[in-house]
Amino acid sequence: MRKSLFLLPILFVALILGLSSVFVVDEREKALVLQFGQIKAVKEQPGLAFKIPLIQEVVKYDDRILSLDTDVIEVTPSDDRRLVVDAFARFRISDVVQFRQAVGVGGLRAAEDRLSSILNAQIREVLGADQVTSDTILSEDRRELMTRIRDQSRALARSLGLDVVDVRLKQTNLPEQNLEATFARMRAEREREAADEIARGNEAAQRVRALADRTVVELVSDAERVAQITRGEADAERNRVYAEAFGADPEFFAFYRSLSAYETALTGGNSSMVMTPDSEFFDYLKGADRSRAGIGDAAAQ
């Protein structure tokens, strides 16, 4: 009985030590077995692994492709137009032993800080190189520039045990203080273009109005000319007819003209005329009175 009580603690301690000597390596991880800070084993294959309990420890690192957003920095291309650049990178831990030796206990956070410094330096170097202008950065050549940044950063990141998979420029903008001036210049250019368009439109409208006015004057002049010709021809025809009528019967023509004159002069209820009694204007009226008087005398007889 006493022996059983003595063995239970030993079995319990042995079980604890046995369990603490086993660890699992996930397929998304790499593991290092450290003994007093020194690397004793590298576990890159997933599955169960063993270590010496209490003496050795296990440090695990992510084996997947990781993302890093760099700080927003300002670069000055060769045309001296400052740009604000925001980039990000994709990387993974390629050599876990070298990674541990490079960053020590700082782990992934320390590696990201050092990789961010490398990326910022390479971005400034590539985008600030000769023959690289702001237009180049904003054009299709941007892809080639990103490839150069990736390759140069990859070469420097190998010392950290990292493999830079890709580098991308997310945004490339003008600094805030330059945006207002740029927008103001763009606004002024658009207003100038609008004023030019309005001026050209007004000029075209004036030409159209002048052409329309000239066309109106020409049409009215032609119409009046044709009307005058038509009136002249009509008057000539009328005079010809009158002349023929006068030549055929002068007495009747004089009588007709007198009646027309009476009709024109004696219109209205209050027509007044002042002339001498012996005027020839009323010859036919006087003749009509004499005719009526002669008819009356004949009837009296």
From TrEMBL:
GO-annotated molecular function: peptidase activity
Record key words, sorted: Hydrolase, Membrane, Protease, Transmembrane, Transmembrane helix
InterPro entries the record matches: Band_7 (IPR001107), Band_7/SPFH_dom_sf (IPR036013), HflC (IPR010200)
Pfam families: Band_7
A Gene Ontology term for the protein's cellular component: membrane
GO annotation terms (biological process): proteolysis
Main location: membrane
Keyword Transferase: no
Topology of the protein relative to the lipid bilayer: Single-pass membrane protein
Residue stretches making up the Band domain: 20-186
Location in or out of the cell: Membrane
Domain of life according to the entry: Bacteria
Family classification: Belongs to the band 7/mec-2 family. HflC subfamily.
Function field: HflC and HflK could regulate a protease.
Name used for this protein in its record: Protein HflC
UniProt source species: Rhodovulum euryhalinum
Lineage: Bacteria, Pseudomonadati, Pseudomonadota, Alphaproteobacteria, Rhodobacterales
